[in-house]
Automatic annotation (TrEMBL):
One example GO MF annotation: acyltransferase activity, transferring groups other than amino-acyl groups
InterPro entries: Acyl_CoA_acyltransferase, GNAT_dom, N-acetyltransferase
Annotated protein name in UniProt: Protein N-acetyltransferase, RimJ/RimL family
Top-rank taxon: Bacteria
Keywords: Transferase
Ranges where the N-acetyltransferase domain occurs: 33-175
Length: 183
């Protein structure tokens, strides 16, 4: 079974579920309660929009339990004495890896939380999650050429720039070493 929660030093990454996505899309006043986190003022962030949420919900509905963990993930900044746990971004995979073990990631951080290294940490957590599945051998990401900050996030996480894709976006790739089995 694929783990549905991953921790980094400052973040808890929680896999999107049908219940969370349904609340986010249709009952937003319940969403922070189910998530257990305060909401940023500008939710949803950047490229994580309603269309992405609907896509993730449709994929989880169609794929059942085997789809869990292969779509959207919520990035929750852990609580401190000064503030409650707070939703700061979203990321995840665009689906399970293909037959060669290749999966694609995407991510976005709310504007109020940018510039603090949280996107770098979110991508690091997604790489960790991919390794933990034992199924992913290579990760891809596509970035607009004008998004220098996101390009730096990928480079800091060991991605390398490859050829641009057919839509003019920049394509980044990195190998993933499967995590050692737990003893």
């Amino acid at each position: 079974m694929i783990p549905l929660i991953t921790h980094t030093p400052r973040l808890t990454l929680l896999a999107g579920s049908r219940a969370l996505l349904t609340a986010e899309l249709h009952k937003p006043h319940y969403f922070p309660v189910l998530l257990g986190a305060a909401m940023p003022a500008d939710w949803p962030p950047g490229e994580y929009d309603e269309e992405a949420g609907r896509y993730f919900l449709a994929q989880l509905t169609a794929g059942g339990r085997t789809a869990a963990g292969w779509y959207g993930w919520y990035a929750i900044l852990k609580a401190t004495e000064q503030r409650p746990a707070t939703l700061v971004g979203a990321g995840g995979f665009w689906g399970p890896p293909d037959a060669a073990g290749t999966a694609e990631i995407g991510y976005s951080i709310s504007a109020d939380w940018r510039g603090q290294g949280l996107a770098t940490e979110l991508v690091s957590g997604l790489i960790q999650q991919a390794a933990n599945t034992g199924m992913v051998r290579r990760l891809l990401a596509h970035i607009r050429p004008d998004n220098a900050a996101s390009q730096q996030v990928l480079l800091r996480n060991g991605f390398q720039l490859t050829d641009p894709d057919t839509e003019g976006r920049m394509r980044f790739e990195r190998e993933v070493e499967p995590a050692a089995p737990a003893v």
